[in-house]
């Protein structure tokens, strides 16, 4: 995995930039100590590490604006960072860049119950939004497994989902407005507290843009009323194929559960040993289904889903009898990633999305790949929308195992595209999937995406080296011609 070569001119400006930052930021908000910078050297994709040149921790939009304006004038790269939970290397620093940490922008600014909205800063954690409004019977629907730690700004950058995204949508479906600072320091506001806005969907463009277009400093989210009833079903099957077929049956019957997750045998056993949620250890596959709404509706749908599960040969079926039991069903699923960490020194968490009907085929192919690479895999996924999270187990201390795990993961993602799916469902591209973008997109597609990047950041200073497999300067796009076998501007770095 190659990143841009460090710019010596940028490195030479380090002392001057530190002095300029300290003109408007407290000394401890400008991190330069080598040991302290190690705290920012990676995100959740820990296989890749690189300390930044400087880390800056502003507390206001005005400070973010001034910091970006200084970096723009100096021609220095900037990598935005939320809580650092990204699993695709989206917040991997650059040796010649400034890491912009947004953790200190962590206030809930306003809760507007009549308009069912909350205005928060990007450093507020996902779960903290629901906690702030639960007293009035509201919550924020997207709930990634890392919701106790991941920040809403990072959720916007990656378009995060969670177990309830099947019915309530991902981050993009739950955002009403954004305040964004562009690379030149300009502050723009998009949307508001209204349902929709005229013109181009710039909120949609920014959501999922992985920090390449602008820095989010305020988010207006949609909050929802807690449903009258939420009920969980814990269903075991004697094969993954039967569980996958049951998922298709439920969706085919016109039922959209609030959440529908699947775990295979290795993940079931790891979760049960970790937090004891009462999972059936004799099952090869486990479905966790949640139905919510008015009590009479949930009662009716519960019986329909029970019947569909039994027709597919469910070997066990429990319906939650209390809120505590329902939350316990989810506890194992939410803790699946750390649970797997107890049974393997390291694991590589993948993220791809496939058509639901191809689930049995894809799982069978992954089992074949597991044998080919000699590495175990535990499967945890959002079954309802086909978003897979295979966990490839390896030991980084064993020579060659990390490389095999990466090759295994790349083959899984190629398989997702092959069957009609996509490279990522919610974790983003970052550096992890960057060099696989050509599997899904043509050169024309990628150039068009980079033109959008150029419209926001013409100098390519925001989070460079991520998402796009080939570096283009904005002046090149649409103007690159090969004549006589010679490429113009041969001195430009391309990776």
TrEMBL record:
<dbReference type="Pfam" id="PF02913">
    <property type="entry name" value="FAD-oxidase_C"/>
</dbReference>
<dbReference type="Pfam" id="PF01565">
    <property type="entry name" value="FAD_binding_4"/>
</dbReference>
<dbReference type="InterPro" id="IPR016164">
    <property type="entry name" value="FAD-linked_Oxase-like_C"/>
</dbReference>
<keyword id="KW-0274">FAD</keyword>
<dbReference type="GO" id="GO:0071949">
    <property type="term" value="F:FAD binding"/>
</dbReference>
<feature type="domain" description="FAD-binding PCMH-type">
    <location>
        <begin position="48"/>
        <end position="226"/>
    </location>
</feature>
<dbReference type="InterPro" id="IPR016171">
    <property type="entry name" value="Vanillyl_alc_oxidase_C-sub2"/>
</dbReference>
<keyword id="KW-0560">Oxidoreductase</keyword>
<protein>
    <submittedName>
        <fullName>FAD-binding oxidoreductase</fullName>
    </submittedName>
</protein>
<dbReference type="InterPro" id="IPR004113">
    <property type="entry name" value="FAD-bd_oxidored_4_C"/>
</dbReference>
<dbReference type="InterPro" id="IPR051914">
    <property type="entry name" value="FAD-linked_OxidoTrans_Type4"/>
</dbReference>
<keyword id="KW-0285">Flavoprotein</keyword>
<dbReference type="GO" id="GO:0016491">
    <property type="term" value="F:oxidoreductase activity"/>
</dbReference>
<dbReference type="InterPro" id="IPR006094">
    <property type="entry name" value="Oxid_FAD_bind_N"/>
</dbReference>
<dbReference type="InterPro" id="IPR016166">
    <property type="entry name" value="FAD-bd_PCMH"/>
</dbReference>
<dbReference type="InterPro" id="IPR016169">
    <property type="entry name" value="FAD-bd_PCMH_sub2"/>
</dbReference>
<dbReference type="InterPro" id="IPR036318">
    <property type="entry name" value="FAD-bd_PCMH-like_sf"/>
</dbReference>
